[in-house]
Design a protein that fits this description.
Jelly Rolls; Hypothetical protein af1432; 2 domains; 10 helices; 4-stranded antiparallel beta sheet; alpha+beta; 10 strands; HD/PDEase_dom
Amino acid sequence: MGIINEDSFIETVHMKGLQISLIASGDGTEIIYHKLDSGTMWGIEPQEGWEALEYLCVLSGELILRNGNDTKTIKKGSSFFRAPVEKHYVFEAAAATEFLYVTSRQVFFHYSKVTKEMMELSISIEEKDGYTRDHCQRINKLSMLVGKALELESKQLVNLNLASFLHDVGKLRIPLEILQKPGKLTSEEWEIMKKHSAFGREILEETGLPLLIDAGKVVEQHHERFDGEGYPHGLKGSEISTEASIISIIDAYDAITSDRVYKRGRSKEEAKTELLKCRGTMYHPEILDVFLALIDHLN
């Protein structure tokens, strides 16, 4: 049971592991209630021309605050504020957590609605592509485990959190007869399919939201290969962002182990063998090693 009376909410948006509710708005200031499930991340970042006060107070639970490689805990009754925000901050719920977020500029309707629409869009695209509704969540969960194991900085974790969920949003612009074709694609159809990663970047750029624009750069790269034989730009090695390299591995692992309409998923051990065959060619070797060590401890 939450400690805020839901009758006071002007509007509520639900996303996976997250509830955002606008409590009050006036003179450009908004008070927004957040409820995060354990493990859910939320963040704020600097924006050019943005001079707003941003303040949060933990009502229940506990938040782990990451800034760069630094971490600290914000417990019930404690607060955090910046005016303006000059660094990237990531907050992760250590347990089910509620907090109030106050900002002196309006953000609720633009950010929450567009982000929710993008996430719902990603789920619908995966269903059309033959995956289950949980595909996006699985990619996100495993990607974040690897990101934390690699001790990524807070900005990278924000990018990874969004891009891993939205990695295939560009398939919205792929014709359904290609996306749902049961047989092998022709060379012409494959060239169209390969455009989905660039389409994903374009779709996220069109939102105008800095967080999604940054995530779009990662989305565009998630089919690049470590050896430079990927698409759309043939990037290789360190030219590919760490976040995209993570998603590439997780996406492949999920494709191997998931049941699809046309095939049965293979075992974890078979997937590990398959991924290792492409270590240093398709996949970043060090990141792959971290992931393979992690999945030995997963159910």
